[in-house]
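Thread title: Can someone regenerate the structure for this chain?

I was given the following input by a collaborator and told the matching structure tokens would be attached. They weren't. Posting the sequence so someone can regenerate them.
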Amino acid sequence: MIRKSFAVFSLFIAIFFVGGAGGVFFEHSVVPRLASSKFFSHFAWVKSASENVTIINRTEQVTIREDDSVERVVSQPATAVVNIIAIKEAQRTTRAVADSENKSTTGVLATNDGVIATYRDALYEGEAKYVVLLENGQSYDARVLGTDPLTNLSFLKIEGDNLPAIAFANSDDARVGKKLVAIGNSSAEYQNRFSIGILENRDKTFNLAGKTVSSSEKWEGVFSIDLKNPSDYIGGPAVQWNGEMVGILGAVDFDNGRKYFVIPSNAVRSALDTVLRDGFASRAMFGAYYLSLSKGYSLAHDIARSEGALIYSPSGRTSLALLSGSPAEKSGFLAGDIVTQVNGRSITLDYPLARAVSDISKGASAEMTVLRGTEEKKIPVQF
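Best answer:
Regenerated them for you:
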């Protein structure tokens, strides 16, 4: 009796597991196939069973590994980087003295016909000879096109065709936190060096005048980038991960130290257009020192407006805020005036007074809207 009961129980267990496994197999493998066929899809029990089936897709783990080399990133822009050797003409007769006076700095080909952009530190004051070394091993004599007083960028020209010019990014689209690659070439021989850094900050109120106040004749708004030995990359490009140049490395003496930064590529492009079109002598001059207003500054100093350019000197004296004989002085501006618009365009951190002045040609006139106390005035300015 016990054996018979055990046999029946074992048979029941076997049917349960086999039948269960078969049911699962039938439900998940057979029913979906029946439901997809034209003949069985019309049966209600097949349709109902298929609606209760949940198909679980297999998920594969994909590991994305960042390339540990920047070679792919810089392969194209690196060919546009050049070595600029400056030799003082007065020292060329004595080899020992000449070697000590030579400067080797970085530049970048901005056009295919040989226009080179670099930072002003690459050039000597006075007469000098300039030789440019290219990635292909060739060397060229270069002539100076000029140095932009607004951006501190210098431009040289070599005679060549189909040269590997760098691609310009739209620096207005550059985002804080993105990786950049700086390229330098300032050794005795042509040899590129690289450094990876993070775009730390868009310093919208830093002015290239190197003062605590901004100058209407110096570019305002740079990128901050963390680099090891940034002095090795002055005049060279900072490129994005797609190989486009987001700006050129520069530096000024500031607050008892050396401030390194990236001049945005849109400023480089504007300076390039100016030197090729009219030259830098065509730039207008306003002649004022100012502070770009921000929400934080206005709240801290109880200023009603949070945008605009505050004509300013630390002493509060107008004579120290305006250059003598400048268009700003002749037009009657006063310390404490807030320039809110130039030719109808609002002055903001993204469009500071220095940039607004740079858009005006020498000899032209403009209308500036000014807040003086609580009164708004429109002042015509002849540049």
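The chain has four domains: 2-51, 71-157, 171-277, 284-382.
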